[in-house]
Amino acid sequence: MKTQPFGLIRNRKALVGVAIIAFILLVAIAAPLLTPYDPGARVGRPHQAPSLAHWLGTTRIGQDVFTRLIYGARTSLAVGFGAGLLITIVGTALGILAGYRGGKVDEVISFFTNMVLVVPNLPLLLVLAAFIGQANPWVIALILGGTSWAWGARVTRAETLSVKQKDYVKSAEMMGEPRWRIMTFEIFPNLISIVGINFIGSVIFAIITQATLEFLGLGDPKVVSWGTMLYAAQKASALSVGAWWDILTPCFALAFLGIGLSLLNFAVDEIANPRLRTGNRLGRWSALIRSGEGRL
Amino acid sequence: MAFLLRRLCFYLAAFVAAATINFFLPRLMPGDPVQIMFSSAGAELPPESLQALKLTFGFVDGPLWQQYLTYLGSIFSGDLGRSIKYFPLPVSTVLGNALVWTVGLMGTATIISFTLGTFLGILAAWRRGSLFDVIVSVGAIFATSVPAVVTSLIVVFFFGFTLNWFPTGYAADPALDPAFTLQYLGSVLYHGILPMLTLCTVLTGGFAVTMRNNMINLLGEDYIVMARAKGLSDGHVMLWYAARNALLPTVSSLAIAIGTVLGGSLVTEVVFNYPGLGNILYQAILARDYPVIQGQLLIMTATMLVANFIVDVSYVLLDPRLKRA
User: Fold this and answer.
1) Does A102 touch chain B (CB under 8 A)?
2) Complex ipTM
3) B190 inside domain
4) 20 to 30 Å CA-CA from B297: which of A70, A106, A191, B224?
5) Domain locations in chain A?
């Protein structure tokens, strides 16, 4: 069959994705072992080109770009996974609640979900962040969690509607199991693939959005992350003075991590959902990412 | 018709929700928000601007609900207050000028990438598993998982600063007077190419993937087999039997994508110093110009709702079942 080589390539993609994430994670954890410098300290002359002493050059104020890159990975990963988790928890809980309870509960939750979906996410985040002032990464993670759950809730609700018709849910109801038990132990485990895809999609979204907010000057410039690196480099007009290493380093890091996570999304889907071997898989994934303006 | 009316009511509610967020945010600030905004903007403001600022956020004498109604009233009459940075220009003027550029950029980029993405998706699905399909699918993953900030910066670095092919800022040559002359329009086009290229790179992949998957789901249907059995040409079956039906869900995905387009154009404008909403917003954030920051949320929400409504209308036109309902 003609589709065979394509399936193989997909599996390889998943492998590559896991490898990329693992690599970035390891580098982030081992950051102090990999560099002699402090990410905030001035350790060289301003805007030095890459050399043996400074592998990726220095910033406008003489900080080591490589050091900031690997320390910044910690912030970007932590916020990404933290906010992703938050978004997923809120979205899944609301989705299951709306789908299982139905009636008034469903109407209220669905109304708010649809409303959050049509209010543009990034402008809303910008307004919130502007009022908070220079938001540290955890505040950003928190407001991401509060504003970006809508797509997950919608998808989870739709899936819950079909799961709740299953016999095992009906029999649990007959036996008089409490509602919260049915929702957490009968329905939730059967939504795990949707939840997993939602989670990775949300992580991608959170990492991109955090970097964007910080790039636009809404982050705390003292924090070292890929977003604040972009902000500082852009503010120092790194491109027009020819210091490409200053601005392209966080760019490629973000692109690399984004690609890795997207590839990982295939893996989760394939492991959790062997039935889903149709092209639909890609569609759901891309819709999830794009939902909350996953890619800004 | 009932469908469109229902959507309109919903959009109205969504807009009021955005306005409500705007109303309550300054009231959640500790201390006197107007004083804080006033002082954070620097001392060069005339005293009468303090009064204008108070009115912008609906700080009138009276209970909260009265303030809220006053605020909603002024929003719906198109009065968004006055900008701090460009005082005494009204926010609606500042944003209105920028909106033209943003909608132009967004609209063109959406049309180009939607058309291109749809055709790539059709071809990829038609030759599922071929090298072309793999290239389109993998390319779409790469293009869609890279943030717009990154794409913009790489494009501006490569085509703007390194190759020097295109300008790296402004919507047109600042030396030219804005007029409907060939020279000016040419300059607008020339300056628009890089931001457009960025947005299209960011958007095309998503449309291609959606279309490809819709097509693949349809290709097994009986009427496709039947069309082939009738001996129709490949191209005819592909475009008039499969693609026509696959287009419907793609159009509804367009509504979701509008938020992406907005966010993307916001960032792209900042990088390319393009005088649209995104750039105005960026300047407003740097200057802590709160009335403009709040105004842009309303304008962007309105833009998104209008775009959503256009998609709704085209959906009704494309799907005859909805027309009868």
Assistant:
1) no
2) 0.80
3) yes
4) A106
5) 18-291
